[in-house]
Write a structure and sequence with these properties.
- This protein has 373 residues and is an alpha+beta fold.
- It has two domains: 13-152; 244-372, Jelly Rolls (Sandwich).
- The protein has eleven helices and ten strands.
- The two termini are 54 Å apart.
- Keywords: Coiled coil.
- It comes from Streblomastix strix.
């Protein structure tokens, strides 16, 4: 089944919407359908100059030539019995389809000055002069007579073929330009998304500065109080609060009960907890079921720690100062809770937010390592 293509840079979509169904109906294996489609298109060709011109420009004559050529090929191969039944069925073109198409070509010749366009039909019309079907034979003689009256020559046939090749080249060029435009649009969208992510991180850093100032003020008050009450032990205590990095954060199964003094890397809790540890404890390892996996940086005090849990994808991804870390968890498809583990008594942290975000901020890293939950 063939249909019109045309030059998509110029042809209105509404024209193709009307013409293509008619072209397909005319090629129907049912004679009544084919005749009805032919009559509808013939009416449009006679009454509408715009549609008639677009039918010529968009390749209808090439469709007719191709259909007739298939019919001739089928006849020749059938006569020598070299064509398989399957291929013969595919190439078979009913006589009524050929006659309806030739009738439409006659209508175009009567309405338009198009001898150059119809020149490509001469080579396939010649064999049809002896066609067994009376209608096909009569239309063939009429068309050859009209083309002879228009003085169609070998030069005009060659000119028509060259014109077709030029149109095909223009279509290919346009498709290449369209693809380049789509690639540019995709790159612009990616840059826009990246810019939004950077703006979000910039806002988070500004908020961090405010909270860090507030934390320093609170720590100054704590330090003053400690020095007043126990000046001998104040230095080592502050070291434990803000220097050691002896902490971890991650998730725990919602069904697991956490008792007092539970350690996330010791049994039985390590079977239900997954945590990312700091500098003084595993040097940045990610712990699960008693095994520590290296690859993430070792975080320390006064840094922003963030985890991103995506239950749609089943992933848990860690960030340090908004930088994504390569070791992450996957295959999480159950209810969990977020946990923070602080080793030293008197240690503290600020929970900046716990919220649902519309889009994930994580990306795929080249050196990422996945741990199965």
């Amino acid at each position: 089944m063939l249909w019109l293509e045309g030059n998509i840079t110029e042809m209105p979509v509404s024209v193709l919407t009307v013409l293509n169904p008619l072209i397909q109906i005319i090629q129907s294996p049912f004679e009544e359908f084919s005749r009805n489609g032919s009559q509808a298109l013939e009416y449009l060709l006679q009454e509408n100059d715009f549609i008639r011109q677009w039918v010529v420009k968009s390749g209808f004559i090439w469709i007719v030539r191709h259909v007739i050529a298939l019919s001739l090929e089928n006849q020749n191969n059938s006569s020598t019995q070299l064509l398989s039944l399957e291929k013969a069925s595919q190439n078979f073109v009913p006589n009524f389809v050929q006659s309806e198409l030739l009738d439409l070509i006659e209508t175009l010749l009567e309405k338009e000055d198009m001898e150059d366009e119809c020149a490509i039909l001469v080579s396939v019309l010649q064999p049809l002069k002896e066609h067994p079907d009376k209608r096909v034979k009569n239309y063939t003689k009429i068309l050859l007579s009209l083309l002879q009256d228009e003085n169609v020559t070998v030069y005009s046939i060659k000119h028509a073929l060259e014109g077709k090749l030029r149109n095909d080249e223009k279509i290919v060029q346009y498709e290449n330009i369209l693809q380049q435009y789509k690639n540019i649009e995709k790159q612009n969208e990616e840059l826009k998304l990246r810019d939004q992510q950077l703006q979000l991180k910039d806002e988070e850093l500004k908020q961090l500065d405010k909270e860090e100032k507030h934390l320093k003020e609170e720590l100054s008050k704590v330090n003053a109080t400690i020095q007043d009450t126990n000046p001998i032990d104040s230095a080592p205590l502050m070291k434990k609060i803000i220097k050691d990095g002896y902490a971890a954060f991650g998730i725990v199964r919602d069904t697991h009960t956490i008792p007092t003094n539970a350690n996330p890397v010791s049994k039985p809790h390590n079977q239900h907890m997954a945590v990312y540890s700091g500098t003084a404890w595993g040097n940045g390892k990610v712990w699960y079921k008693g095994k520590g996996t290296e690859g993430n940086v070792a975080f320390h005090d006064s840094q922003i720690l963030k985890l991103e849990l995506d239950l749609d994808k089943g992933t848990l991804i860690f960030f340090v100062n908004l930088i994504q870390q390569p070791v992450f968890f996957t295959n999480i498809h159950e209810k969990v809770r977020c946990i923070i583990y602080l080793y030293y008594r008197g240690s503290n942290c600020i929970i900046r937010s716990l919220k649902k975000i519309p889009n994930a901020t994580s990306i795929q890293l080249a050196n990422q390592k996945a741990i199965q939950w």
